[in-house]
């Protein structure tokens, strides 16, 4: 994986093979950030990445100057890798080891962007629970967005607060906003 833009543009990051991750492809990530670039000023963003895995999305936001980036994953090796990489690159990322659903129940922050990249084999109910918790707990700031990455085989367009989705190969980004 590589960082597409910002202070570390072009930097390649190789996650250890033992990590249980499926990093967002560069093509999909570039498409996502093209959309976000037209709607947000990165240096003013508070970002929460759920199911952070290798930290791929967190590095991209931090490289682009996000105000704060918090990465949540339940795998300790993923958290250690994010911490090590963010220190090496001097990126301000706060990695937290936690079950995502438990974290959302008690999340102490509000974010401009919440990005969730759960396993592609999640059930509709599991995907829906992410969106429900984000909106029930008021975790988005005004004009904030929840983005859930999922496979093209999952359909999230019938969930409350769904706005739009964008497809990149096998990956789909579903955007949710307060309406």
Automatic annotation (TrEMBL):
SUPFAM superfamilies: S-adenosyl-L-methionine-dependent methyltransferases
PROSITE patterns per record: N6_MTASE
The keyword Hydrolase is annotated on this UniProt entry: no
UniProt KW Methyltransferase keyword: yes
UniProt-listed GO biological process terms: rRNA methylation
Domain of life according to the entry: Bacteria
Pfam families: Cons_hypoth95
Molecular-function GO terms, alphabetical: methyltransferase activity; nucleic acid binding
Keywords, in A-Z order: Methyltransferase, Transferase
Classification via CDD domains: AdoMet_MTases
Record-given protein name: 16S rRNA (Guanine(966)-N(2))-methyltransferase RsmD
Source organism (scientific name): Gillisia mitskevichiae
Highest classification ranks of the organism: Bacteria, Pseudomonadati, Bacteroidota, Flavobacteriia, Flavobacteriales
């Amino acid at each position: 994986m590589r960082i597409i833009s910002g202070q570390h543009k072009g930097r390649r990051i190789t996650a250890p093979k033992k990590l249980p991750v499926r990093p967002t492809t560069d093509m999909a990530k570039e498409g996502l950030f093209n959309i976000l670039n037209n709607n947000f000023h990165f240096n003013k963003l508070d970002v929460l990445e759920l199911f952070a895995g290798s930290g791929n999305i967190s590095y991209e936001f931090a490289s682009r100057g996000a105000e704060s980036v918090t990465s949540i994953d339940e795998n300790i090796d993923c958290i250690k890798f994010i911490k090590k990489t963010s220190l090496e690159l001097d990126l301000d990322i706060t990695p937290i080891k936690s079950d995502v659903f438990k974290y959302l129940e008690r999340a102490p922050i509000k974010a401009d962007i919440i990005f969730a990249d759960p396993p592609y084999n999640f059930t509709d109910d599991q995907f829906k629970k992410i969106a429900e918790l984000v909106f029930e707990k008021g975790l988005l700031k005004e004009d904030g967005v929840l983005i859930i990455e999922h496979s093209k085989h999952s359909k999230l367009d019938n969930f409350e607060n769904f706005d739009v989705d964008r497809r990149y190969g096998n990956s789909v980004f579903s955007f949710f906003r307060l309406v």
